[in-house]
Task: inverse folding
């Protein structure tokens, strides 16, 4: 142990970062080597590994000379030597050189250059390649003149096979020419724009694109002063630059300004189609001078034309002189996209003389900056009838006036100038004729040697830029031109098919693949099999340059391609981050299916990730090929001195691992590297260490980086004693920890692996309460020893057991590699990024399991839910707002061996508030922890049952109180889980699912039970029918009140519903059209005949309030009701509360119905005269009858007076 501790003082360097490319040691080319924008390839001649690198060298007499170099590693740098290319070259001065494309195989090296020429007295330019074929040891084998092939074979083949639908051309076998004379290859020099606007700058600097790449800067000039055949770079034609100066002053009517815009749009659109090298800028002037777009915007014709339509008139004054000076200062300026050798044209469109301009027109026109600029002036309207205005117009136009000055009467007449202006500006490029086919094909723009028998040569310029692939078979000495059908080619101009080429080995044969990065604006990859198009892969974003780079990958190196990577370096999210798409080659169908894209978090919005792709061999020695991806502009915005990155992705059996394993930044390699990652290759061993190295190209430099060996360890730990005795109060354990190295290197090379192992041992890992500790009472120990040591002895102590004496003590060993000093001579080894740097060892307790190797518990779980304490039946549902308590009765039985650390885990909704746990007296100790949230909707609670050993039966109850809050889900799940730490034990899980509903109470009443209606008067009346609802609706259940109102009897209307309203906000009432069924048990009117029918109309109200009053206004049309109503007619108005029973429970449902009786009364009309006459006659008859009776009774007889006196006297005596 002491010897190990002494090694701690030797650690002075942090572990080397990255996986597994070493950036501490690099080999670079000296700055004196002219390797501008080198394309790099690794190559072997069978004995030695070489780097092939393109370069350019400045020569005062011949301009930029394209070179091919072979490079090898010296002690501290890369030494390069030029390869002398040979071949036959036309000596005409009209032929100009382009960039160089290279490819290699085990048998050949192929180098192709672009030769551009314009034949005398012809408007047709020719741009195609010449290729030198070399042996692996750099000896000339053959020379291929692609221009001759296209001119002599393809064109004649087209004439003889015009009916060929697939546009495939076969070439006769006489196009390879033996080589004898050295070839000094001239080049225009590969100096792409700083923003790497186009891909493959080292192949052809300026492919014929208008929207996605560089322009060719070496075309012959037109008749504006260029003399063809000039050899000096300063005299080479760099295109035509046209600056339009548009008068936007207030004297121009808005509709005339729109006509001027339309004229400019049509002119530019026409010129763009016939002049690849024409760039436009537009300046509008009024009170202000505004650049609408400059020369740099011409790369995207569609966007430029759209900007014309978006121009807004400035109005106010006419500052023509200031606008022309603005063009000189800010348009024809090299930092604004202007080329030194370009033909410059200024076109001024105005409607009158200068007004309020601070500059003098004579001074502006006569300035030295105006030298060499052709000026055209267009005057519109009658203002130029004035001498002053006409003199200004003549001054603006170059001499002679008849060729440069034009006048029209109004803006509508501008269209008549289009043809004349076009012939003046671009007389050569604008010659009308058929679409270009092979004249500007640029065959050899990209190249690939495939399967020893095929040369694939991209021809991006064929068929007006739609492009194609020239496939040559050296064995049969025939060639085929591959592209889309002629009908599709016409609609795919400037697609640049052939921008990248690749060959793929599928199980059913070879596939030839080519990228067309501007096809359909989003880019496309075309897959050919033999001589026909098999399938296409479509890009997903406009302008992403999808297909500009291709990389087939054979992951398991079995000879069959597994993946195809497709670069889209201009893919934009916030800038031009770039993206690499991954396609899987299906074994059976031989077709590609999308597998997504490589995931990377870029540090720059303009990284151009995917600008370069390379399969770099198995650098981490896991048996699968790895990938390198270049992002040459990453970090440019933050550091202009060193920028660019290379990303390493490792392969595995499933594809490519994500994320990347290493990002190599330019600044990590050298402080002056720029555009680092613009070219990458790998697969060969340059350092003689048995490991694959990578080569990276940057601006002016080639860099070789070595890979580091990946090592693994077989780690063992032996304990003495092998088990912990539970009955001992404490135990002393000795552990022997051993590391044995596993390395892919040969035994003779492993002596260079200078590193130390730093390891950390954690005792009783993951246990909160530790059961073991080292001598210093710590539970973690860190040590270091040299890799030539194999074992280390550790000693620790097991503490007395007080709670868990059954689960094993886990020792976690974490280890890393550290280095004494920075290693330069030998690549420092490193651990596998994808391997596990942690190892776990188990120190078990000795258990008593009845002589069995393991203790097998036999647990049985029973549980049942009850709602509220007074109910004994199972609880089928939770009624929130009604259910008060929920009880879970649990019975757990163990009929097997001891169950160790038996734990109950309850998972339940947060609406349940734990109240208490009640165990039965006979149950073992049960200790529950506090509830804790497990998610936003659930809580959990852990209970230890009989810790540490559970043997018999535990019966207990868990009681919750139910909150009056909404449950998040339709069902309430309560999960009971029983676990222990016995070996091979399984958890017991029981889930209770309760349907959740919500309670409300509502009582339906009516203010009056009977409503009387007198129908005798025959006058329509409005009556209010009211129902009251009182209750509690805490959960705002939608309560529906349905009111059935009788509206007709036997087809006669008795009522008409006018309105229905409630008093609370949010209440919605509507009365339904049509008839409603009668209320149950009340089909007819009271007292009506059986044939009478009563029809009802329904009023439907929905509310969520606790209380509500619903009022129905009913009109009673009583005009004719007396004709069909009886003296009394009773009709019922019924009200009933309904609700969605799936979600809600209504309490007191017996009060959910109410009735109101509507009584119709009719008065009888009496005939007065018959009653009077009858009464009179009756009265007289009654009087006569009474008189007769009285007469019969002697009522009218009279006594004599004498007798009356005697009677009175006798009465007195008696008194």
Result:
């Amino acid at each position: 142990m002491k010897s190990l501790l002494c090694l701690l003082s030797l650690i002075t360097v942090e572990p080397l970062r990255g996986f597994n490319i070493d950036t501490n040691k690099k080999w670079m080319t000296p700055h004196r080597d002219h390797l501008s924008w080198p394309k790099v390839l690794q190559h072997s001649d069978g004995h030695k590994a070489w780097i092939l690198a393109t370069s350019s060298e400045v020569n005062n007499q011949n301009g930029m000379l394209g070179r091919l170099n072979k490079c090898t590693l010296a002690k501290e740098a890369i030494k390069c030597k030029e390869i002398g290319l040979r071949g036959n070259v036309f000596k005409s001065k009209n032929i100009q050189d382009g960039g160089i494309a290279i490819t290699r195989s085990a048998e050949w090296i192929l180098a192709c250059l672009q030769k551009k020429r314009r034949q005398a007295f012809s408007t047709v330019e020719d741009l195609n390649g010449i290729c030198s074929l070399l042996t692996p040891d750099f000896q000339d084998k053959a020379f291929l003149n692609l221009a001759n092939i296209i001119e002599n074979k393809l064109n004649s083949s087209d004439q003889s096979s015009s009916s060929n639908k697939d546009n495939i051309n076969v070439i006769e076998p006489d196009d390879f020419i033996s080589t004898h004379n050295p070839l000094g290859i001239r080049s225009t020099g590969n100096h792409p724009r700083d923003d790497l606007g186009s891909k493959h700058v080292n192949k052809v600097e300026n492919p014929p694109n208008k929207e996605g790449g560089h322009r060719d800067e070496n075309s012959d000039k037109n008749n504006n002063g260029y003399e063809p055949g000039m050899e000096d770079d300063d005299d080479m034609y760099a295109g035509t630059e046209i600056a339009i100066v548009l008068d936007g002053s207030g004297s121009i009517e808005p509709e005339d300004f729109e006509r001027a815009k339309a004229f400019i749009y049509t002119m530019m659109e026409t010129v763009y189609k016939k002049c690849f090298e024409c760039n436009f800028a537009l300046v509008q002037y009024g009170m202000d001078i505004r650049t609408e777009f400059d020369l740099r915007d011409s790369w995207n014709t569609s966007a430029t034309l759209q900007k014309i339509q978006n121009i807004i008139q400035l109005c106010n004054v006419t500052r023509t002189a200031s606008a022309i000076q603005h063009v000189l200062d800010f348009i024809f300026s090299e930092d604004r996209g202007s080329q030194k050798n370009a033909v410059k044209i200024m076109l001024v469109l105005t409607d009158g003389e200068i007004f309020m301009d601070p500059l003098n027109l004579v001074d502006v026109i006569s300035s030295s900056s105006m030298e060499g600029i052709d000026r055209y002036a267009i005057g519109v309207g009658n203002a130029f009838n004035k001498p002053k205005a006409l003199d200004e117009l003549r001054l603006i136009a170059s001499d002679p006036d008849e060729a440069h000055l034009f006048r029209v009467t109004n803006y509508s007449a501008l269209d008549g100038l289009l043809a004349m202006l076009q012939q003046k500006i671009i007389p050569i490029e604008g010659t009308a004729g058929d679409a270009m086919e092979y004249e500007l094909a640029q065959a050899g723009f990209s190249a690939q040697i495939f399967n020893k028998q095929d040369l694939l040569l991209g021809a991006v310029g064929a068929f007006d830029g739609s492009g194609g692939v020239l496939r040559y078979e050296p064995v049969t000495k025939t060639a085929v031109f591959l592209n889309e059908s002629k009908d599709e080619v016409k609609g795919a101009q400037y697609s640049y098919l052939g921008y990248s080429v690749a060959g793929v080995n599928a199980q059913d044969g070879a596939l030839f693949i080519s990228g067309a990065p501007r096809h359909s604006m989003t880019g496309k990859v075309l897959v050919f099999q033999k001589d026909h198009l098999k399938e296409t892969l479509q890009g997903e974003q406009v302008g992403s340059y999808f297909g500009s780079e291709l990389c087939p990958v054979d992951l398991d190196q079995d000879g069959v391609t597994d993946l195809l990577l497709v670069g889209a370096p201009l893919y934009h999210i916030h800038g031009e981050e770039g993206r690499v798409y991954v396609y899987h080659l299906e074994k059976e169908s031989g077709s590609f299916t999308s597998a997504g894209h490589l995931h990377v978090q870029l540090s720059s919005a303009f990284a151009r990730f995917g600008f370069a792709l390379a399969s770099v061999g198995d650098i981490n020695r896991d048996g699968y090929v790895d990938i390198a991806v270049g992002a040459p502009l990453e970090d440019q915005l933050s550091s202009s001195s060193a920028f660019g990155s290379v990303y390493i992705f490792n392969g595995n059996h499933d594809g490519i691992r994500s994320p990347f394993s290493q990002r190599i930044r330019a600044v990590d390699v050298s402080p002056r590297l720029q555009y680092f990652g613009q070219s990458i290759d790998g697969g060969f061993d340059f350092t003689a260490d048995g490991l694959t190295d990578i080569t990276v190209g940057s601006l002016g430099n080639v860099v070789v980086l070595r890979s580091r060996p990946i090592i693994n360890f077989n780690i063992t730990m032996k304990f003495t004693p092998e088990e912990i005795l539970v009955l001992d109060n404490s135990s002393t354990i000795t552990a022997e920890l051993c590391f044995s190295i596993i390395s892919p290197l040969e035994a003779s090379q492993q002596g260079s692996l200078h590193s130390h192992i730093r390891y950390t041992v954690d005792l009783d890992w993951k246990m909160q309460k530790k059961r073991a500790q080292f001598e210093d009472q710590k539970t973690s120990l860190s040590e270091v020893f040299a890799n030539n040591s194999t074992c280390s002895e550790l000693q620790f102590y097991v503490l007395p057991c007080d709670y868990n004496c059954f689960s094993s003590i886990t020792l976690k060993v974490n280890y890393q590699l550290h280095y004494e000093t920075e290693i330069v001579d030998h690549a420092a080894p490193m651990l596998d990024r994808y391997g596990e740097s942690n190892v776990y060892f188990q120190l078990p307790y000795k258990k008593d399991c009845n002589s069995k190797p393991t203790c097998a518990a036999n647990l049985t779980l029973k549980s049942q839910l009850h709602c509220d304490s007074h109910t004994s039946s199972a609880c089928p549902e939770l009624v929130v707002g009604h259910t008060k308590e929920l009880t879970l009765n649990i019975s757990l039985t163990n009929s097997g061996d001891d169950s160790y650390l038996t734990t109950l885990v309850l998972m339940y909704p947060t609406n349940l508030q734990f109240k208490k746990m009640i165990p039965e007296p006979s149950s073992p100790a049960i200790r529950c922890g506090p509830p804790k949230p497990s998610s936003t909707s659930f809580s959990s609670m852990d209970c230890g049952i009989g810790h540490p050993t559970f043997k018999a039966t535990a019966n207990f109850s868990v009681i919750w109180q139910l909150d009056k809050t909404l449950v998040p889900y339709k069902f309430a799940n309560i999960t009971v889980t029983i676990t222990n730490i016995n070996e091979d034990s399984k958890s017991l899980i029981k889930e209770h699912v309760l349907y959740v509903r919500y309670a409300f109470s509502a009582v339906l009443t009516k203010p009056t039970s009977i409503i009387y209606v007198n129908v005798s008067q025959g006058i329509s009346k409005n009556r209010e029918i009211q129902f009251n609802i009182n209750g509690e609706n805490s959960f705002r259940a939608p309560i529906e009140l349905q009111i059935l109102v009788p509206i007709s009897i036997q087809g006669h209307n008795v009522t008409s519903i006018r309105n229905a309203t409630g008093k609370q906000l949010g209440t919605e009432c509507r009365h339904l059209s049509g008839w409603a069924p009668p209320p149950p048990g009340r089909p007819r009117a009271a007292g009506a005949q059986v044939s009478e029918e009563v029809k009802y109309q329904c009023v439907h109200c929905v509310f969520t309030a606790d209380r509500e009053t619903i009022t129905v206004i009913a009109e009673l049309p009583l005009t004719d009701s007396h004709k069909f109503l009886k003296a009394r007619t009773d009709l019922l108005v019924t009200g009933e509360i309904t609700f969605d029973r799936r979600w809600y429970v209504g309490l007191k449902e017996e009060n959910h119905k109410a009735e109101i009786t509507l009584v119709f009364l009719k008065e009888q009309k009496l005939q007065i005269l018959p009653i009077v006459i009858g009464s009179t006659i009756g009265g007289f008859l009654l009087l006569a009858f009474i008189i007769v009776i009285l007469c019969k009774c002697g009522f009218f007889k009279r006594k004599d007076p004498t007798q009356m006196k005697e009677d009175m006297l006798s009465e007195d005596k008696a008194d």
